[in-house]
Design goal:
The structure holds three protein chains of three kinds.
Chain A lengths: L1 H15 L3 H34 L5 H11 L4 H12 L14 H37 L4 H11 L1 H17 L2 H7 L9 H10 L3 H33 L1
Helix pairs in contact in A: 1-10, 2-5, 2-6, 2-7, 3-5, 4-5, 4-8, 5-6, 5-7, 5-8, 7-10, 9-10
Chain B lengths: L1 H13 L10 E7 H5 L2 H13 L2 E7 L1 H9 L5 E4 L2 H9 L3 E17 L12 H11 L3 E3 L5 H12 L4 H4 L4 E3 L4 H11 L2 E5 H6 L6 E5 L6 E9 L9 H12 L1 H9 L1 E2 L2 E2 L2 E2 L9
Parallel strand pairs in B: 1-2, 1-3, 5-6, 5-7
Antiparallel strand pairs in B: 3-9, 4-7, 4-8, 4-9, 4-12, 10-11
Chain C lengths: L7 E10 L2 E11 L4 E5 L6 H9 L6 E5 L8 E4 L10 H11 L4 H14 L15 H14 L4 E5 L7 H16 L3 E5 L3 H7 L2 E6 L2 E7 H6 L4 H10 L3
Parallel strand pairs in C: 3-7, 3-8, 5-6, 6-7
Antiparallel strand pairs in C: 1-2, 1-4, 8-9
Helix pairs in contact in C: 2-3, 2-4, 3-4, 4-5
Classes of the chains: A mainly alpha, B alpha/beta, C alpha/beta.
Chain lengths: 234, 276, 235
């Protein structure tokens, strides 16, 4: 029990001291997860809309595949991306391994399916409500997709936050493709894993408190933004 | 509407990919036990001051570190398993192996000491007693230098692990720190390097029970990954690191690293340059 | 000058879904300049007739022939108005936006149509917070903005109170007087009498009777129509 008390004390003192290394780690974690979320949204939301609206052979399998891929194990994704980005692998020439770029790449693969699957369901439901009218007005498939993506933006924001949460929380992928290099690819989660393995549990827990607080802050900001705009548009 | 657009732009800006530093740096694949001993935190800033080169350490098990070298994903490999290192060079993945320093292994165990090994100066005898008592023993099981050493000591004790293994022998497949955590949780015996033990904070009821046997001597070697095999290897910067490590400044910096006044690593580079 | 899309000719149109025959033998000729109201019991096939004509559903048998290319020259309004999550004005302008009309022009036209349906005062309000009657008028303004040659309406006032329903009827009549061909379904026979030149009576998936409005209500020709009117009329 005292470990928990020590953890909060550790967290408080880390933040109060303005520890530069801590801030660097927090900044890197945010940059990697936010970047991955942004790219995953650019890929996943239109993909989800497409699968929702288009009719093509194998569509049911595509829906099932997207849903299943929401549960991709991070450590497996990390391993696959590592093999792709290794100098001995097909994408080795980019020299991305053990850099933040590799971490963004791996996390994008992890969360794009989440955004695509949730967008697919959201757009399908919106299509049930608006589909006939959109067809009557002459909307093409891309036009309908864009209209419904914008129309369901509040639900999609929640999906995006879910993706961001998943990215911020995972350690398996970023550990393998980033290498947990001090000052370069050490994120909150890999730092916590390291301190745990060194037996410094209060510090590890303290970092955990900081991590949760950071993710909470991002969610709070998004919720405030959503509420403010929702009041205007219904 | 406008607010949403502004927020989205802010989001994109914040999310813009971290800029890759254009500084001079090398990637060194090393072991978790070396990293967690804190040596690099002491060594690398000194090297940076001397050369302006950043060293990025990826800490893995020895087996994994050598694999990273084989794949060309690191410029230098810095591990502690001489047979594996020599094989690495013989297979053409490294240019040459150079010895750098040594530290020692210790046997850690519960203060209650069910196997009665405390104070022994013979690691093989200690393992025999642990096996006889079927006392819980945690093995790293991860192809690390430490794991390789542990297997050699079982052989010295003339115990065939394949037949002798039982519920008492816990193979965890993890780095030194996590394995120590597990041993602390299970109140088990475990072989560890002294440096990681001195840095380890979650000791529970464990303490050093056996030390000082010459066989517990743990030699470190450093190898430049073969640029003929992997042209992207930064051979000049990598060689600069190796030269510094085995040169007078590096060796002194290694000797200066202390925890609680105790020296952890003992420099023993051979003064003459190895023939390439 | 493109050919007018009317007359529209349905020739023995039928629709099977999953082995079940939904409608059969729809034969109908829609001439320009008229107001047709389709009546019939629930499930008789009225809505399906509209959807087949409008092109939302493809027939499995028979043919549907327009005089000219109907693409972009029809519009439809549904029982539940489909409002997007944006201002009323932007909803009205949406059809024009789909056609690539530049923003200034489409907003001006949308404002004009909103004025014609009497909703200028709520142009900037989010469409989804409007009342049912207001939303339906926005939907009509949206259709009107496209200047369609034919307008389909599927029970547009079924969920509205009498005041709101009359407002919708006034808009339909105004559009008709500007030359839009009207095809509407309804349960409300008083409304049918107010709006229709011509009645199409659909019974059990078939067109049972087609007649000028007066004749249908005073002297229905078929027994099915007589039974329907007896059941529906309150007097």
């Amino acid at each position: 029990m005292s470990t928990f008390a020590d953890a909060f004390a550790a967290a408080a003192s880390l933040v109060a001291q303005g520890d530069a290394r801590l801030y660097a780690i927090v900044a890197l974690s945010l940059q990697v997860s936010l970047a991955a979320t942004a790219v995953a949204a650019l890929i996943g939301l239109p993909l989800g809309a497409f699968v929702a609206l288009a009719r093509f052979p194998g569509r049911r399998a595509a829906v099932a595949a997207l849903n299943a891929m929401m549960g991709l194990p991070p450590v497996v994704v990390g391993l696959v991306v590592y093999l792709l980005l290794s100098r001995a692998g097909p994408l080795g020439a980019f020299g991305l391994l053990f850099t933040p770029g590799a971490m963004v790449f791996a996390q994008t693969i992890l969360i794009a399916p989440i955004l695509a699957a949730l967008a697919r369901q959201t757009i399908e439901d919106a299509w049930a409500e608006h589909g006939e009218q959109l067809r009557s007005l002459g909307a093409s498939l891309p036009q309908a997709g864009a209209t419904l993506l914008w129309d369901t933006r509040f639900a999609l924001t929640t999906a995006i936050l879910a993706g961001f949460g998943r990215a911020s929380a995972e350690v398996g992928a970023v550990m393998i493709v980033g290498g947990n290099i001090d000052g370069v690819t050490r994120t909150m989660t890999t730092a916590i894993a390291l301190e745990t393995s060194k037996g410094d549990l209060p510090l590890a827990l303290g970092l955990g408190v900081v991590l949760i607080a950071t993710v909470f802050a991002v969610n709070a900001a998004a919720a405030w933004l959503r509420d403010a705009t929702q009041r205007r548009f219904g | 509407m406008v607010m949403f657009r502004r927020a989205f732009l802010a989001f994109l800006l914040l999310a813009s990919a971290p800029v890759a530093a254009q500084e001079r740096f090398i990637t060194v694949a090393s072991t978790t036990s070396t990293d967690q001993s804190g040596l690099f935190g002491h060594l690398l800033p000194a090297f940076k001051r001397a050369s302006g080169i950043d060293v990025r350490v990826v800490a893995l098990g020895t087996g994994q570190a050598l694999d990273v070298g084989r794949r060309g994903d690191a410029d230098v490999v810095f591990v502690h398993d001489k047979p594996a290192e020599e094989k690495f060079v013989a297979e053409g993945f490294g240019t040459a192996r150079v010895q750098v320093m040594y530290n020692d292994f210790v046997v850690i165990g519960p203060k209650a000491d069910p196997a009665k090994v405390a104070g022994l100066k013979d690691v093989a005898e200690a393992l025999r007693r642990i096996h006889a008592a079927q006392a819980p023993f945690v093995s790293r099981g991860d192809r690390s230098g430490t794991h390789a050493a542990e297997l050699r000591y079982w052989q010295d004790a003339k115990i065939d692990l394949a037949t002798a293994k039982g519920a008492w022998y816990r193979d965890v497949g993890q780095g030194m720190g996590p394995a120590l955590n597990t041993a602390a949780g299970m109140n088990a015996y475990i072989l560890a390097d002294r440096a990681t033990w001195l840095n380890f904070k979650n000791r529970a009821d464990l303490a050093i029970v056996v030390e000082g046997d010459e066989k517990l001597f743990n030699q470190y070697g450093v190898i430049l990954v073969n640029p003929a095999r992997h042209p992207a290897v930064k051979k000049d910067l990598g060689q600069a690191f190796i030269d510094w490590l085995v040169g007078p400044d590096g060796q002194k910096t290694i000797a200066d690293y202390k925890i609680g006044g105790e020296q952890l690593f003992f420099p023993n580079a051979v003064p003459a340059r190895p023939r390439s | 000058m493109a050919r007018p899309i009317l007359p529209l000719v349905l020739d023995r149109v039928s629709l099977d879904i999953g082995g079940t025959r939904i409608v059969s033998d729809f034969t109908l000729r829609l001439e320009p300049g008229q107001r047709t109201v389709v009546v019939g019991a629930n499930g008789a096939g009225k809505s399906m007739l509209l959807r087949l004509c409008h092109g939302l559903v493809a027939p499995t048998g028979g043919s549907i022939a327009w005089n000219g290319d109907p693409a972009g020259r029809q519009a439809m309004v549904f029982q539940r108005p489909s409002m997007l999550r944006r201002a009323a004005l932007d909803n009205v302008a949406y059809g024009l936006k789909l056609r690539g009309v530049p923003r200034a022009e489409r907003e001006a036209r949308a404002a004009e149509m909103l004025a014609r349906v009497g909703l200028s005062h709520i142009a900037r309000r989010p469409a989804r917070v409007l009342s049912g009657g207001e939303q339906q008028r926005v939907a009509l303004a949206r259709a009107w903005a496209l200047a369609p040659e034919i307008l389909f309406l599927d029970e547009p006032t079924a969920s509205l109170d009498p005041g709101a329903a009359r407002a919708v009827e006034d808009i339909v009549l105004a559009m008709a007087s500007e030359g839009t061909r009207i095809v509407m379904t309804t349960h409300n026979l008083g409304q049918a009498r107010r709006i229709a030149d011509e009645i199409v009576f659909v019974d059990k998936g078939r067109i049972a009777e087609t007649a000028p409005s007066d004749r249908f209500f005073t002297a229905p020709a078929t027994p099915a129509a007589r039974a329907f009117l007896k059941g529906e009329l309150p007097w």
